[in-house]
Amino acid sequence: MLGDNPYGRSTEGGDCSECRAVRRQQGSKLGTCGSVPSTMSRTPDPTRIVHVEPSRLDEAMSALLGAGPAAAARFVEQARASRVALEHLWCSTDAHGRYRSAVLAVPSPGRASMLLATRARDADDAHQMGPLIAAAIAGSAPFADIAQALIEPARVHDITAFEVGGLTRMADLEYLERGLPRAGIIETPHTPSGWTIESAGTPVQLAGNEVEAIPADTREELVTALEQTYLDTLDCPGLAGMRATKDVLVGHFGSGARPRHWLVARQTSSSEVADSSPAPLPRQDGPQQDNQQVDALPPRVSQTDGRRGPVQGVCLLNVTPDGSGAELVYLGLAPAARGHGIAQALLAHGLHACSRSRCTSVSLAVDARNVFARRLYERNGFRRVSTRVALVCKTHDASHAR
């Protein structure tokens, strides 16, 4: 739900989570952004907030990154080459009109916006940043229903700045990762009796550029299933209802052609006989594009009366743009499916599909309060690699406040 999982890891001196979020969605190679010290003046005028002029983009990027002109110019060049939008950028100025701090709103699929801001050094900086962040949130309203930021827990002043700007601390996220075998394929998983695990679409549909590649009736069924999984959820429950579920689905799909392993769980009727094992296929050792011929094949299900139960569980995995890994962007069950081992079955089938398509790792983010999900992932070999504080707000509330 949150940000459609555009999360990443951060290492000191390396890419921060915000850079990785942009790079992962666009397939780009953007460099370090807000993880370096800011150059914010101690005396900017917080009331002087301007939308950045295109002719001063490099100057604004210097303020955003806390970097010199050369680094800012490289960032702009890389962003343009990767088709990352940079026009939603706001700056505060000093008495001489120079840009001293900046906030960039990066549009994400599904009417969401990721906020990147100049790093605050202390409490005074944090409170000076607040009005600028609020301006960026309000400016995102035409193209986003929610604005979000993902901050390392140790960056307490940045968290304060976003809270002053109008965002609410939604969750502490744990980023987990596990490897997949480089040779061979994970064993075919078991499906509980009375249930089927199948693909949400054909390989061609799931490898499209846009979610509209999936038939409208299937998209509608997925939206209904997602809404059921939000009931009594422990995974960022505050996000439920903040934007239309159809937009959440678009966000999960992301942008750009790539293999996607989208699996759904259905309860079978008494007249259905299910064989949960995928049709046998040899492992493909050819180029990455061959993956579309073997990914996410539906289980064989024999139906004698044509009846199919509704989708009661979803597991959505997207292969990364470079094909080396996959992200579990969402795993959820409707209340009726909980307690039957369906989450384990969905996850196992998803890992099996990723293994068949030659991914070497799978990553995800989970609300730290969701103890049941964390136990499931730990049992399946996932280990924590980093944490982030997720802050979110509705953009239209901010625009009305202004």
Written account of the structure:
By secondary structure, this protein is an alpha+beta fold. The chain has two domains: 17-174 and 392-401, Aminopeptidase; 181-359, Aminopeptidase (3-Layer(aba) Sandwich). 29% of the residues lie in helices and 26% in strands. The protein has helices at 17-26, 57-65, 69-81, 123-140, 156-164, 203-206, 216-229, 245-253, 342-356, 371-379, 395-401; strands at residues 45-51, 89-93, 99-108, 112-117, 146-151, 168-179, 195-199, 260-267, 272-275, 300-303, 311-319, 325-333, 361-367, 383-394. Strand 2 (89-93) and strand 3 (99-108) form a beta hairpin. The model is unreliable at 1-42 and 271-306 (pLDDT under 50).
Give the SSE layout.
Blueprint: H1 17-26, E1 45-51, H2 57-65, H3 69-81, E2 89-93, E3 99-108, E4 112-117, H4 123-140, E5 146-151, H5 156-164, E6 168-179, E7 195-199, H6 203-206, H7 216-229, H8 245-253, E8 260-267, E9 272-275, E10 300-303, E11 311-319, E12 325-333, H9 342-356, E13 361-367, H10 371-379, E14 383-394, H11 395-401
Parallel strand pairs: 4-5, 12-13
Antiparallel strand pairs: 1-2, 2-3, 3-4, 5-14, 6-13, 6-14, 7-8, 8-11, 9-10, 11-12
Helix pairs in contact: 2-3, 4-5, 4-11
Concise description?
With 402 residues, the protein is an alpha+beta fold.
Order of strands, main sheet, comes to: 1-2-3-4-5-14-6-13-12-11-8-7
- Ranges where pLDDT stays below 50 over 5 or more residues in a row are 1-42, 271-306
CATH class of the largest domain: Alpha Beta
The helix tally amounts to 11
Task: Determine the strand fraction and express it as a percent band.
Answer: 25-35%
Q: Name the overall outline.
A: elongated
CATH architecture of the largest domain: 3-Layer(aba) Sandwich
Q: Could you state the order of secondary-structure elements as H and E? A: HEHHEEEHEHEEHHHEEEEEHEHEH
Characterize the main sheet.
Answer: 12 strands, mixed
Mean pLDDT: 82
CATH topology of the largest domain: Aminopeptidase
* C-alpha-based Rg, rounded: 22 Å
What portion of residues is helical?
25-40%
Q: How far apart are the first and last residues' alpha carbons, in Å?
A: 27 Å
| Count of folded domains | 2
SSE-based structural type? alpha+beta
